[in-house]
Amino acid sequence: MLNSIYALILAGGSGERFWPLSRQARPKQLLRLVSKKTLLEETLARLEGFIPRERILILTNTEQESAVRKLLGSFPKENVVAEPAKRDTAAAVALGTGWVAARDHAAVMLVLPADHVIANRAAFQQTLALAADAAEETSELVAIGIKPTWACPGFGYIEQGKPVHLRTRPDKDAIHRVLRFREKPNLDLAESFLRKGNFRWNAGMFVWSVPTVLREFNRHTPELADFISQVRAPEHFEKALRERFSKLPRISFDYAIMEKADRVLVVEAGFDWDDIGSWRAVANYFEKDKQGNAANRPITALDSSNNIVFEEDGTTVALLGVRDLIVVQTKDALLVCHRHEAEKIKDLVGKIPPELQ
Questions:
Q1: I want to staple 117 with a disulfide (CB 3.0 to 4.6 A). Which of 144, 203, 274, 320 is the partner?
Q2: Is residue 127 part of a domain?
Q3: Same domain (yes/no): 230, 292
Q4: How far apart, in whole angstroms, are the C-alpha atoms of residue 282 and residue 276?
């Protein structure tokens, strides 16, 4: 199986929620938030021994291309492709599908975000291997589902139905049929999902065979299917990318394909997972003092509690008489906000001078 698996890593996206550390040219996946490696480097490391680098495509955008190439100096240069325009995940997956199909028209393909935190590499690879077997044996689309730990209203959910058993695998009840995808619910609905017990978080990780996903593109988005037919011809790849990509519909893969497909499976993740979508989430990986102040380096605090501090350059940070703040210091910017306003940072970024966005 190893030789027939390819991976598409989605490494575009904007750098808003982690401003001022993140910028348009340095989004979340290019940050060292929880270790000495960037999240993109961690994503690649998780695939070591499972998928060789020549079978991995990293899809970024023109704003971030140079930073990605500089970060991954030893990675095959031709395996980093920059989207010339922002067209959401359906177009990105179409581009990746064409790239893989040009190399192996019958391959199994993984789609992975570049900005998640997953510590257990062995369990991660075992889950993906099971999903790959399911995709190959059943010719269905496969989503990876995360068992919810709380009623999060910020994630999409997958409602799972009856278990599906493979001929080639003894795994019990790890694979289920998908009844439907549910968009980000309000808190009450999310709590009801948790009580029912058959809902999983949609992690945005997918597995399928190239023929299977081509079938779904042809059924539901002929325009994207036509684009795939262009980019899968190696001699037309650059021209199609340059001339056609920016004209593709701007729609997510979930809306375009997953929610319309009638043959979808979900494999429950056997690994830990964290989306770390805000400074509050990152703070869980920092050292905390007795007053609950979380920081990426030692700070001085007096009569201060429950604050989050990230300091990039070694400047001494001292807190006096403050509570529930987020303080982020970089070379050229300083953020001070209430921790309960963290979700509004992306609204703030639009008001900041363009050269600092």
A1: 274
A2: yes
A3: no
A4: 6
pLDDT number for residue 201: 97
Inside any domain, residue 263: yes
Q: Are residues 160 and 78 in the same domain?
A: yes
Q: Where are the beta strands (DSSP E) in 51-198?
A: 56-61, 80-83, 108-113, 141-146, 157-163, 175-182
Q: Is 274 within the bounds of a domain? A: no
- Say if residues 89 and 252 touch (Cβ distance below 8 Å): yes
Tokens 């399928």 found at: 208
State the pLDDT confidence band at 156, using cuts at 50, 70 and 90. Answer: very high
User: What is the spatial distance between Cα 13 and Cα 35, in angstroms, rounded to a whole number?
Assistant: 21
Q: Which long-range contacts (CB under 8 A, 24 or more apart) does 225-234 make?
A: 225/94, 227/91, 227/94, 227/95, 227/98, 228/94, 228/97, 228/98, 228/101, 229/98, 230/98, 231/94, 231/95, 231/98, 231/99, 231/102, 232/97, 232/98, 232/99, 232/101, 232/102, 232/105, 233/102, 234/102
pTM, 2 dp = 0.93
Decide if 258 is inside a domain: yes
Q: Enumerate long-range contacts of 244-248, CB under 8 Å, 24 or more apart.
A: 245/83, 245/84, 245/85, 245/87, 245/91, 245/95, 246/84, 246/85, 246/87, 248/87, 248/90, 248/91, 248/94, 248/223, 248/224
Amino acid, res. 144? I
The number of distinct structural domains making up the chain is: 2
User: For the segment 2-60, what is each residue's pLDDT rounded down to a tens digit?
Assistant: 559 999 999 987 768 899 999 988 899 999 999 999 999 999 999 999 999 999 999 99
Residues 6+ apart with CB under 8 A from 85: 245, 246
Give the N- to C-terminal CA distance of the chain in Å, as an integer. Answer: 44
Same domain membership, residue 71 and residue 195 = yes
Q: Are residues 325 and 344 in the same domain?
A: yes
Residue with tokens 């139905």: 161
Confidence class for position 154, pLDDT limits 50, 70, 90 = confident
